[in-house]
Amino acid sequence: MLIPFLMKNCFQLLCTHKVPAAGFKNAVKSGLILQSVSSDVYQNLAVEDWIHDHVNLEGKPILFFWRNTPSLVIGRHQNPWQECNLSLMRERGVKLARRLSGGGAVYHDMGNINLTFFTTRTKYDRMENLKLIVRALNAIQPQLDVQATKRFDLLLDGQFKISGTAAKIGRTTAYHHCTLLCSTDRTSLSSLLKSPYQGIKSNATQSIPAMVKNLLEKDPTLTCEGLINA
């Protein structure tokens, strides 16, 4: 895989991983696990789309970990005035970004892990990816009650959303990305994801509110670093 020099500076290779049959769909031979060295939402979204557009994923899926300083990311078909408290974001210096996948608005900070699963289009399987995350969580904390839903969210204790899903499906490649709430600032999350504007009429996709909870609130040993390693 040939990667431009400037792009190489954006992430580190955690490992070239021999993926077991229970890992990625169809028991591929190997894959790459990358972790971003940037906490800038614009750089990370750009790396994500560069991988989708330029990397041959045949037989080599990629799992990409990334975290951002406080940012609010909206889906491809969303209206920021309906989704965000833009004045509060400006006041606090919180960045606004639009991703190329669909889905709802998401608050990012360093306590929120983003995972992107890159595969060929034929091997794209969001549920298998979520099951992989659940297995990793149960490996480090068997008592955790985490389940994937039909909406491709992850729920903790059957009611608290700890992960939401979005995807981009291209002609030959695809990616599924999701969040994992570890120790995010829930006060900022709730205040920034609440628009003060009323009466806006739009055909934009609207986010669906949900109760959320950090994994660290359930178990203080579940740090971001430990979850990424798992």
From TrEMBL:
Record-level GO BP terms: protein lipoylation
Pfam families, per database record: LplA-B_cat (PF21948)
Gene3D superfamilies: Bira Bifunctional Protein, Domain 2
Taxonomy, superkingdom: Eukaryota
BPL/LPL catalytic domain boundaries: 57-230
Pathway named in the protein's UniProt entry: Protein modification; protein lipoylation via exogenous pathway; protein N(6)-(lipoyl)lysine from lipoate: step 2/2
Molecular function via GO: lipoyltransferase activity; N-acyltransferase activity
CDD domains xrefs: LplA (cd16443)
GO annotations of cellular component type: mitochondrion
The family this protein is said to belong to: Belongs to the LplA family.
Name of protein: Lipoyltransferase 1
Originating species: Cavia porcellus (Guinea pig)
